[in-house]
Amino acid sequence: PPVMLVELLFQAACVSLFLSGGQGRVYPARKKPASFAVERRRVGPHVCFQGSGSGCCPGWMLSPGSGKCTLPLCSFGCGGGSCIAPNLCVCPDGEQGITCPEPPGTCGEYGCDLSCNHGGCQEVARVCPIGFSMAETANGIRCTDIDECQSVACEGTCVNTEGGFTCECGAGRELSADRHSCRDMDECQATPCQHYCENSVGSYRCSCRPGYHLHGNRHSCV
Questions:
Q1: Coil, helix or strand for 113?
Q2: Which CDD domains match (predicted)?
């Protein structure tokens, strides 16, 4: 009898274990993860949105070759490097970061503009007109007028203009050919006197022939 009792207890334990195991397999809550895992394996990696656009997770896009979400995106660009993961670039010097510095170009620190005509396009240096300096601001690059009067020496008065400057001389003087110095103006060349004109520094004086005297207007002879 003791042997039969042990066998009955063992059989009861087996039946109980079988029933509990069988009931565990029919719970729907335990089937969902297995089904979702199969679905993810079937669609491919980096898929987050089923039936919505490409379905790719943020930072990934469809690879043209396979049509799967295996191509990483680098929002800031990698320049001469390559994108190896979302917003992670490997640069030509081996460094890694969210972007790679652009190699120095032939157009200088302000970059290039594209000049196009019927023969094609070429990159030209981005410069400002003569008399202007280039400055970077929060709204981009702008050209500002240079005040040449801060460095140019005028014999008379320096007047700054947009893109240049002019030197001005006082009354009775005119600008020389070098556009900086002043010389005496020969007012007599404009024949301001009726008879005779004598030029002087910064002025002139009229006189008359014998038998005439100078009018009160200092130009005519009476």
A1: strand
A2: EGF_CA
**C-alpha distances in angstroms, 100 versus 89, 111, 169, 188?**
7, 17, 57, 72
Q: How many CA atoms lie within 13 A of 178 on its CB side?
A: 9
pLDDT, tens only, 17-46: 444 444 444 444 444 444 444 444 445 678
**Segment 52-103, tens digit of pLDDT:** 566 888 888 888 877 888 889 888 788 778 899 999 999 888 889 888 876 6
CATH homologous superfamily for the domain 47-126:
Laminin (2.10.25.10)
CATH 2.10.25.10-classified regions of the chain: 47-126, 132-184, 187-221
Q: How far apart are CA 206 and CA 199, in angstroms?
A: 9
Q: Identify the three-state secondary structure at position 97.
A: strand
CATH 3.40.1080.10 matches 132-184: no
Predicted TM-score (pTM) of the model is 0.35
Cα separation of 47 and 68, whole Å? 9
Q: Which helix (H) or strand (E) holds 37?
A: helix 28-43
Q: How far, in Å, CA of 84 to CA of 95, rounded? A: 12
Whole-number Cα distances in Å, 212 to 192, 197, 219: 17, 15, 12
> Residue 96: which residues within 8 A CB-CB, separation 6 or more?
84, 88, 89, 90
Q: Top-level CATH class of 187-221? A: mainly beta
Q: d(Cα 170, Cα 172) in Å, to the nearest integer?
A: 6
